[in-house]
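New to this. Please check this fold:
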Amino acid sequence: MEPLFLNPLFMDRIWGGTALKDKFNYNIPSKNTGECWAISSHENGDCTISNGEFTGMTLSHLWNNEKHLFGNVNGDKFPLLTKILDANDNLSVQVHPDDEYANINESGELGKTECWYIIDCDDDAEMIFGHNAKSKQELVQMINDNKWDDLLKKVKIKKGDFFYVPSGTIHALCKGTLVLETQQNSDTTYRVYDYDRRDNNGNKRELHVNKSIDVTTTPHKVPDNVYSKILDKSFELTTFVDNNFFSVHKLNTFGKCSFEHDKPFSLCSVLDGKGSLICNAKEYQLNKGCNFIIPATIDNFNLDGNLEMIISHI
Protein backbone atom coordinates (compact mmCIF):
# COMPACT_ATOMS: atom_id res chain seq x y z
CA MET A 1 0.00 0.00 0.00
CA GLU A 2 1.18 3.53 -0.80
CA PRO A 3 1.11 6.76 1.22
CA LEU A 4 -1.63 9.20 0.22
CA PHE A 5 -0.30 12.51 -1.12
CA LEU A 6 -2.84 15.32 -1.25
CA ASN A 7 -3.52 18.34 -3.46
CA PRO A 8 -3.84 21.36 -1.15
CA LEU A 9 -6.72 23.83 -1.36
CA PHE A 10 -6.39 27.60 -0.90
CA MET A 11 -8.74 30.15 0.62
CA ASP A 12 -8.77 33.92 0.10
CA ARG A 13 -8.99 35.85 3.35
CA ILE A 14 -9.13 39.56 4.11
CA TRP A 15 -6.01 39.10 6.26
CA GLY A 16 -4.10 36.87 3.80
CA GLY A 17 -0.98 37.55 1.76
CA THR A 18 1.55 35.78 -0.46
CA ALA A 19 3.68 33.86 2.07
CA LEU A 20 2.25 30.51 0.96
CA LYS A 21 3.79 31.15 -2.45
CA ASP A 22 6.92 32.87 -1.17
CA LYS A 23 7.76 30.23 1.46
CA PHE A 24 6.32 27.03 -0.05
CA ASN A 25 6.08 27.81 -3.76
CA TYR A 26 2.38 26.98 -3.76
CA ASN A 27 0.35 28.16 -6.74
CA ILE A 28 -1.94 30.50 -4.81
CA PRO A 29 -5.05 32.09 -6.35
CA SER A 30 -4.52 35.68 -5.18
CA LYS A 31 -2.42 38.14 -3.20
CA ASN A 32 -4.83 37.68 -0.29
CA THR A 33 -4.44 33.94 0.17
CA GLY A 34 -4.76 33.29 3.89
CA GLU A 35 -5.22 29.54 4.21
CA CYS A 36 -3.81 26.37 2.72
CA TRP A 37 -6.09 23.46 3.59
CA ALA A 38 -3.29 20.93 3.32
CA ILE A 39 -5.01 17.78 4.57
CA SER A 40 -8.78 18.17 4.70
CA SER A 41 -11.97 16.24 4.12
CA HIS A 42 -14.34 18.98 5.27
CA GLU A 43 -17.31 19.81 3.05
CA ASN A 44 -15.96 23.35 2.71
CA GLY A 45 -12.63 22.03 1.44
CA ASP A 46 -12.14 18.40 0.43
CA CYS A 47 -8.62 17.56 -0.77
CA THR A 48 -8.03 15.09 -3.59
CA ILE A 49 -5.39 12.37 -3.73
CA SER A 50 -2.53 13.01 -6.16
CA ASN A 51 -0.90 9.57 -6.45
CA GLY A 52 -1.56 5.86 -6.82
CA GLU A 53 -4.77 3.96 -7.32
CA PHE A 54 -6.88 6.61 -5.57
CA THR A 55 -5.68 9.54 -7.71
CA GLY A 56 -8.42 12.17 -8.08
CA MET A 57 -10.58 10.79 -5.27
CA THR A 58 -11.42 13.01 -2.32
CA LEU A 59 -10.28 12.28 1.19
CA SER A 60 -13.90 12.17 2.36
CA HIS A 61 -14.64 9.53 -0.29
CA LEU A 62 -11.83 7.34 1.03
CA TRP A 63 -12.98 7.87 4.61
CA ASN A 64 -16.51 6.77 3.70
CA ASN A 65 -15.60 3.90 1.37
CA GLU A 66 -12.09 2.66 2.27
CA LYS A 67 -12.18 2.64 6.05
CA HIS A 68 -9.43 0.02 6.24
CA LEU A 69 -6.96 2.74 5.18
CA PHE A 70 -7.71 4.50 8.48
CA GLY A 71 -7.71 1.50 10.79
CA ASN A 72 -11.50 1.17 10.57
CA VAL A 73 -11.84 4.05 13.01
CA ASN A 74 -15.46 4.84 13.87
CA GLY A 75 -17.03 8.17 13.02
CA ASP A 76 -18.98 9.87 10.26
CA LYS A 77 -16.22 12.43 9.64
CA PHE A 78 -12.49 12.26 9.19
CA PRO A 79 -11.46 13.66 12.60
CA LEU A 80 -8.54 16.00 11.81
CA LEU A 81 -7.69 18.91 9.53
CA THR A 82 -4.25 20.40 8.77
CA LYS A 83 -3.91 24.00 7.59
CA ILE A 84 -1.09 26.45 6.93
CA LEU A 85 -2.10 30.04 7.72
CA ASP A 86 -0.53 33.23 6.39
CA ALA A 87 -1.47 36.06 8.74
CA ASN A 88 -0.39 39.00 6.61
CA ASP A 89 -2.73 41.07 8.79
CA ASN A 90 -4.49 40.49 12.11
CA LEU A 91 -7.11 37.75 12.18
CA SER A 92 -10.39 38.48 13.91
CA VAL A 93 -10.52 37.91 17.64
CA GLN A 94 -12.40 34.64 17.84
CA VAL A 95 -13.37 31.59 19.85
CA HIS A 96 -14.53 28.09 18.93
CA PRO A 97 -17.22 25.88 20.50
CA ASP A 98 -16.75 22.42 21.96
CA ASP A 99 -18.32 19.30 20.45
CA GLU A 100 -21.53 19.50 22.46
CA TYR A 101 -22.29 23.14 21.67
CA ALA A 102 -21.38 22.78 17.99
CA ASN A 103 -23.48 19.66 17.59
CA ILE A 104 -26.56 21.45 18.94
CA ASN A 105 -26.05 24.88 17.40
CA GLU A 106 -24.15 24.16 14.16
CA SER A 107 -26.12 21.31 12.57
CA GLY A 108 -24.00 18.47 13.89
CA GLU A 109 -20.61 20.10 13.25
CA LEU A 110 -17.67 19.07 15.42
CA GLY A 111 -16.23 21.46 17.96
CA LYS A 112 -12.87 23.03 17.26
CA THR A 113 -9.92 22.44 19.50
CA GLU A 114 -6.75 23.34 17.63
CA CYS A 115 -3.04 24.02 18.00
CA TRP A 116 -0.43 26.15 16.26
CA TYR A 117 3.19 25.61 15.35
CA ILE A 118 4.87 28.91 14.46
CA ILE A 119 6.70 28.25 11.18
CA ASP A 120 7.94 31.82 10.93
CA CYS A 121 7.05 35.28 12.18
CA ASP A 122 8.22 38.88 12.30
CA ASP A 123 10.70 39.82 15.03
CA ASP A 124 8.06 41.75 16.96
CA ALA A 125 5.17 39.37 16.28
CA GLU A 126 2.56 38.58 18.91
CA MET A 127 -0.75 36.81 19.23
CA ILE A 128 -3.90 37.20 21.29
CA PHE A 129 -4.27 34.27 23.65
CA GLY A 130 -6.88 34.47 26.38
CA HIS A 131 -8.63 37.29 28.24
CA ASN A 132 -8.60 39.09 31.58
CA ALA A 133 -12.29 38.85 32.57
CA LYS A 134 -12.78 37.22 35.97
CA SER A 135 -16.41 36.24 35.33
CA LYS A 136 -18.91 35.87 32.52
CA GLN A 137 -20.61 39.07 33.69
CA GLU A 138 -17.32 40.99 33.48
CA LEU A 139 -16.65 39.47 30.04
CA VAL A 140 -20.01 40.73 28.78
CA GLN A 141 -19.47 44.19 30.26
CA MET A 142 -15.98 44.59 28.77
CA ILE A 143 -17.21 43.50 25.34
CA ASN A 144 -20.19 45.86 25.49
CA ASP A 145 -17.90 48.72 26.55
CA ASN A 146 -15.38 47.92 23.76
CA LYS A 147 -12.57 47.62 26.30
CA TRP A 148 -10.51 45.40 24.02
CA ASP A 149 -7.10 46.53 25.26
CA ASP A 150 -8.12 45.70 28.83
CA LEU A 151 -9.88 42.46 27.94
CA LEU A 152 -7.46 40.71 25.58
CA LYS A 153 -4.21 39.04 26.60
CA LYS A 154 -1.30 39.44 24.17
CA VAL A 155 1.81 37.25 24.14
CA LYS A 156 5.06 37.57 22.21
CA ILE A 157 5.84 34.72 19.82
CA LYS A 158 8.87 33.44 17.95
CA LYS A 159 9.68 30.89 15.29
CA GLY A 160 9.36 27.34 16.63
CA ASP A 161 6.81 28.16 19.35
CA PHE A 162 3.82 25.88 19.87
CA PHE A 163 0.41 26.84 21.27
CA TYR A 164 -2.42 24.50 22.27
CA VAL A 165 -5.78 26.26 21.81
CA PRO A 166 -8.69 24.37 23.42
CA SER A 167 -12.26 25.21 22.47
CA GLY A 168 -13.48 28.12 24.56
CA THR A 169 -10.18 30.02 24.26
CA ILE A 170 -10.35 33.58 22.92
CA HIS A 171 -7.47 33.94 20.45
CA ALA A 172 -6.17 35.55 17.28
CA LEU A 173 -3.09 35.32 15.15
CA CYS A 174 -1.62 38.74 14.48
CA LYS A 175 0.16 40.33 11.54
CA GLY A 176 3.42 38.78 10.35
CA THR A 177 2.84 35.15 11.32
CA LEU A 178 3.03 31.88 9.35
CA VAL A 179 1.53 28.92 11.18
CA LEU A 180 0.79 25.23 10.74
CA GLU A 181 -2.52 24.48 12.42
CA THR A 182 -3.70 21.04 13.50
CA GLN A 183 -7.37 21.02 14.46
CA GLN A 184 -10.54 19.03 14.77
CA ASN A 185 -12.30 18.70 11.43
CA SER A 186 -14.51 21.75 11.86
CA ASP A 187 -15.05 25.11 10.16
CA THR A 188 -16.96 26.79 13.00
CA THR A 189 -15.52 30.11 14.14
CA TYR A 190 -17.25 32.74 16.26
CA ARG A 191 -15.87 36.25 15.73
CA VAL A 192 -16.13 38.45 18.78
CA TYR A 193 -14.18 41.44 17.39
CA ASP A 194 -12.77 42.36 13.96
CA TYR A 195 -11.15 45.79 14.46
CA ASP A 196 -14.16 47.45 12.76
CA ARG A 197 -12.53 46.81 9.39
CA ARG A 198 -14.41 46.51 6.13
CA ASP A 199 -14.04 44.32 3.06
CA ASN A 200 -13.54 45.58 -0.52
CA ASN A 201 -17.27 46.23 -0.76
CA GLY A 202 -17.28 48.39 2.35
CA ASN A 203 -19.03 45.77 4.49
CA LYS A 204 -18.03 44.71 7.97
CA ARG A 205 -17.67 40.97 8.50
CA GLU A 206 -20.33 39.20 10.55
CA LEU A 207 -19.71 38.97 14.29
CA HIS A 208 -21.06 36.25 16.58
CA VAL A 209 -20.90 38.00 19.94
CA ASN A 210 -23.66 36.09 21.75
CA LYS A 211 -22.33 32.69 20.72
CA SER A 212 -18.81 33.83 21.58
CA ILE A 213 -19.92 34.74 25.08
CA ASP A 214 -21.74 31.42 25.41
CA VAL A 215 -18.68 29.30 24.67
CA THR A 216 -15.80 31.35 26.12
CA THR A 217 -14.11 29.72 29.10
CA THR A 218 -14.22 32.21 31.98
CA PRO A 219 -11.86 32.91 33.62
CA HIS A 220 -9.23 32.05 31.01
CA LYS A 221 -7.31 28.82 31.65
CA VAL A 222 -3.73 28.49 30.44
CA PRO A 223 -3.18 25.00 28.98
CA ASP A 224 -0.60 22.95 30.85
CA ASN A 225 1.66 21.76 28.04
CA VAL A 226 4.48 19.38 28.86
CA TYR A 227 6.70 18.54 25.89
CA SER A 228 8.70 15.35 25.52
CA LYS A 229 11.63 14.64 23.22
CA ILE A 230 13.31 11.57 21.74
CA LEU A 231 16.87 12.07 20.51
CA ASP A 232 18.57 9.67 18.12
CA LYS A 233 21.67 10.02 15.96
CA SER A 234 19.46 10.21 12.86
CA PHE A 235 16.38 12.09 14.13
CA GLU A 236 14.83 14.26 16.84
CA LEU A 237 11.15 13.78 17.71
CA THR A 238 9.36 16.34 19.86
CA THR A 239 5.84 15.64 21.15
CA PHE A 240 3.93 18.89 21.69
CA VAL A 241 0.55 17.54 22.71
CA ASP A 242 -0.98 14.09 23.22
CA ASN A 243 -4.65 14.01 24.25
CA ASN A 244 -8.11 12.78 23.27
CA PHE A 245 -8.32 15.21 20.33
CA PHE A 246 -4.95 14.65 18.66
CA SER A 247 -1.26 14.05 19.10
CA VAL A 248 1.12 16.46 17.40
CA HIS A 249 4.87 15.95 16.91
CA LYS A 250 7.75 17.72 15.20
CA LEU A 251 10.23 15.42 13.47
CA ASN A 252 13.68 16.51 12.33
CA THR A 253 15.71 13.95 10.39
CA PHE A 254 19.47 13.92 9.73
CA GLY A 255 19.97 11.17 7.17
CA LYS A 256 18.46 7.70 7.09
CA CYS A 257 16.02 6.63 9.81
CA SER A 258 13.37 3.94 10.23
CA PHE A 259 10.01 4.06 12.00
CA GLU A 260 7.32 1.58 12.93
CA HIS A 261 3.80 2.78 12.21
CA ASP A 262 1.18 1.56 14.68
CA LYS A 263 -1.40 4.37 14.32
CA PRO A 264 -4.70 4.21 12.41
CA PHE A 265 -3.22 6.94 10.18
CA SER A 266 -0.69 9.77 10.42
CA LEU A 267 -0.89 13.22 8.81
CA CYS A 268 2.49 14.54 7.65
CA SER A 269 3.52 17.99 6.42
CA VAL A 270 7.05 18.86 5.29
CA LEU A 271 7.92 22.35 6.54
CA ASP A 272 11.53 22.47 5.38
CA GLY A 273 14.28 20.48 3.72
CA LYS A 274 14.20 17.68 1.18
CA GLY A 275 14.54 13.94 1.22
CA SER A 276 12.63 10.77 0.50
CA LEU A 277 10.03 8.47 2.01
CA ILE A 278 10.47 4.73 1.44
CA CYS A 279 7.47 2.42 1.91
CA ASN A 280 7.19 -1.17 0.72
CA ALA A 281 10.39 -0.84 -1.34
CA LYS A 282 9.06 2.21 -3.21
CA GLU A 283 10.61 5.67 -2.88
CA TYR A 284 8.73 8.99 -2.86
CA GLN A 285 10.47 12.36 -3.08
CA LEU A 286 9.70 14.81 -0.29
CA ASN A 287 10.07 18.56 -0.64
CA LYS A 288 9.04 21.59 1.36
CA GLY A 289 5.24 21.89 1.16
CA CYS A 290 4.46 18.19 0.66
CA ASN A 291 1.45 16.91 2.61
CA PHE A 292 0.60 13.23 2.88
CA ILE A 293 -1.09 10.57 4.98
CA ILE A 294 0.53 7.33 6.08
CA PRO A 295 -2.42 4.89 6.21
CA ALA A 296 -2.96 2.00 8.60
CA THR A 297 -1.90 -0.42 5.85
CA ILE A 298 1.74 0.76 6.16
CA ASP A 299 3.40 -0.91 9.15
CA ASN A 300 6.79 0.74 8.82
CA PHE A 301 8.56 3.34 6.70
CA ASN A 302 11.96 4.93 6.20
CA LEU A 303 12.95 8.55 5.77
CA ASP A 304 16.19 9.75 4.19
CA GLY A 305 17.38 13.34 4.12
CA ASN A 306 17.29 16.50 6.17
CA LEU A 307 13.63 17.18 6.85
CA GLU A 308 11.51 19.18 9.25
CA MET A 309 8.00 17.77 9.52
CA ILE A 310 4.88 18.08 11.61
CA ILE A 311 3.13 14.74 12.17
CA SER A 312 -0.26 14.31 13.80
CA HIS A 313 -2.66 11.48 14.54
CA ILE A 314 -5.62 10.67 16.76
User: Anything to note?
Assistant: Residues 71 and 264 are 4 Å apart (CA to CA).
